Amino acid sequence: MSYNKTPSITAETINQKVRMFTYEPCGGIVRHAQRLEQEIYENPGSLPFQEIIYCNLGNPQALGQRPIKFFREGVRSLREAVADGIAARDGFPSIPDSIFLTDGASSAINMMMQILIRSHEDGILCPLPEYPLYSGSIILHGGTMVPYNLTEDSGWGLEIFEVKSCLEEARASGLTIRAMVVINPGNPTGQVLSMTNQEEIVEFCRKEGVVILADELYQENVYTENKRFNSFKKVARSLGYDHKEISIVSFHSVSMGYYGECGRRGGYMEICGFGADVIDEIYKLASLTISPNIAGQILISLVMDPPKLGDGAFEIFMAEKEETCSSLLKRAKTLHKAFSSLEGVSCNKFEGAMYLYPRLQLPPSAIKAAEKERVNPDVFYVHRLSATGIVVVPGSGFDPVSGKSHFRCTILPGEDKITAMVPRLRAFHEAFMDEFRS
Amino acid sequence: MSYNKTPSITAETINQKVRMFTYEPCGGIVRHAQRLEQEIYENPGSLPFQEIIYCNLGNPQALGQRPIKFFREGVRSLREAVADGIAARDGFPSIPDSIFLTDGASSAINMMMQILIRSHEDGILCPLPEYPLYSGSIILHGGTMVPYNLTEDSGWGLEIFEVKSCLEEARASGLTIRAMVVINPGNPTGQVLSMTNQEEIVEFCRKEGVVILADELYQENVYTENKRFNSFKKVARSLGYDHKEISIVSFHSVSMGYYGECGRRGGYMEICGFGADVIDEIYKLASLTISPNIAGQILISLVMDPPKLGDGAFEIFMAEKEETCSSLLKRAKTLHKAFSSLEGVSCNKFEGAMYLYPRLQLPPSAIKAAEKERVNPDVFYVHRLSATGIVVVPGSGFDPVSGKSHFRCTILPGEDKITAMVPRLRAFHEAFMDEFRS
């Protein structure tokens, strides 16, 4: 691992609270022992003992269940599987030491915010609408969210000159811009960024010395023929930029895709373009919660290294995957058609992720009624809708301004449920409009 | 849930960064829907629909696997099992709504530090030696650690008048003392607090309005006939103090005990004596990482609600538990005897937890050699020891001062490994002492 030529993120410029604490149970002595263990593995007989006895951690799986090998070699091989999967996906190398396995993507995102944010003078570029984990985590770690707008009229695309002007304005106000969050495919918006758009983002972040925090959780959920998923790392490498020239962190999870194993809490982040000393600090920070759960670690490695042609499991796996993906698309189409047909509702194209994000044009008297209840119009509508047993998320949870006229609806309920839901939704909406039209 | 009469921890006095963010995907509308669902469950037919369709979260287990019921009713019943187990253990009631299931105890501890700490002017009383998750988490969240000493000569007991003077000194310097961490049974020290000592702590924290953060991870690891584990909540209730009079958070985990399932990342915290608005903020903070892993949630409920006399699994379960516990004790005794017999090494009594914390009196020339290498004497010794394949943790990782003459060793390697380790340890130590004695 080597440094950026002019790295914006160094051990000196991360959140110094992370550097200040020590955590010896997973500290220097343990890593020294791991090197000895590797030495025994590679050159048997080279040391005067055959195995390491780990008396450092209160990990009772050492009770004769051979967990030590599992934690050491086992976990290493899981990270290798993930790195291999990334390399196969992108056509560019990935190294296991750049992979951190995590309990879902959320804990990885929180960890990176904790590393990057030193004070409220550190700004993070973040889309609006956004998944509120980002704004929440930025606020929680004491930073400043610097929003940039996605524009509904261009299919929730991103205008790089607007992002640039957000960055410049933020800098003029005294902020240091540390990173740019990009959610692709989009949540809640369901868009898939074009290659051109991604290239612009890479050029911009490289030039400005801004880390790309790439939410790539929905990389397997692309439903349009015209676009495909490209990781930001692939885009950067395709443009000829290596780890010395741009810093990218990619987040992924077992919760999405065609697998949807939320309850397993498996995930990884791939960290590219940071110095070894920063990686050490991230490792220490990760050690504070000991380790992600093993089942989730195994699952994310399987997600990234699925059965291949010729493997025994291949056919059933492909059939299941295909069935799930085509069912998801079918459900999305049904819901999209239903929303689009409602009075005063328009609905964006559905390209990826798992959400529709319809726009509501409510009658003025409905907006007044919401005001009277001191809630946003979207909350008012969504709350009324919930009285029919249908739960969606108010748009203002994703964007305090434009969200007031939106809500987010997953495409995930089973086909039969969606079929049953559509007439209920229609009846509710018609009654709602009738009530407030006059 | 009701408030302390003069609660030190209210929604107004927690870390305001937690209050500042919103997280709608798990927000008000969802809790409203959950109330509707409860209504359907309790009074079937009372609402014009039979089930809630959750279109709010991108949780694809809704893909026909009936996960919604599991997440809602299932998880409720897991928390009920934990609460029942606590009630059975303590003889005092515990309510499911006070239980937060977590990915191991570490994430729960981090979450509470994040809630309690507003700035570096907030102090947390913390023992020395301590498990460095505490100091790490306090620093990470921007607070000030206020150490109190455990004294080796009294078997790592705690003198309440000393804690009081630490608190007063800290207050005089402008700090607000928010909480007191107590690790019982102790890590790294292996002591079990006496009932009298626990009562003093409860009286002290109640009087001073200080939250008790009770690390009760080793509650099943008590090996002495003379003492037993008592939760701080039980001690407080036995003294007649209810949730209005004292705030206690108890942490537990599947990683310790006779089960030792570290890799599962299961845990809970029981939160007593906080207002409902504080609980709401903790719920929101917990939602930022979505949920703990399901397997870990199930496991912690089983840990707290193990097979009972008459259950089919009871006999095998008891036999396994007994076998593990007696083997742990045997290993502890072997190691204790070995350490105690070494020149210049003394070793504390082993009462509980999973650690021995021997004291090293190294020859002056060894200390000089350490100085020359610019490391603490404990690190110097431990590093040398690791060259024999035995890994322990330097004491300075638990206490920067007294730790320089200690190291922590788990009792967890299998009996055969411990038997093999003792002569290696002895040979190393003798050679080490010979080298530096002159």
UniProtKB/TrEMBL annotation, chains A, B:
Top enzyme class: transferase
Keyword Transferase: yes
Cofactor: pyridoxal 5'-phosphate
Gene3D superfamilies listed in its UniProt record: Aspartate Aminotransferase, domain 1, Type I PLP-dependent aspartate aminotransferase-like (Major domain)
UniProt pathway: Photosynthesis; C4 acid pathway; Amino-acid degradation; L-alanine degradation via transaminase pathway; pyruvate from L-alanine: step 1/1
Record EC number: 2.6.1.2
Presence of keyword Transferase: yes
InterPro entries for the chain: ALAT1/2-like, Aminotransferase_I/II_large, PyrdxlP-dep_Trfase, PyrdxlP-dep_Trfase_major, PyrdxlP-dep_Trfase_small
CDD domains noted in UniProt: AAT_like
Keywords attached to this entry: Aminotransferase, Pyridoxal phosphate, Transferase
GO MF annotations, alphabetized: L-alanine:2-oxoglutarate aminotransferase activity; pyridoxal phosphate binding
All residue ranges annotated as the Aminotransferase class I/classII large domain in the record: 73-413
Biological process, per Gene Ontology: L-alanine catabolic process
PANTHER family named among the record's database cross-references: ALANINE AMINOTRANSFERASE, ALANINE TRANSAMINASE
Subunit (UniProt): Homodimer.
Record family assignment: Belongs to the class-I pyridoxal-phosphate-dependent aminotransferase family. Alanine aminotransferase subfamily.
Protein name: alanine transaminase
Species of the source: Leersia perrieri
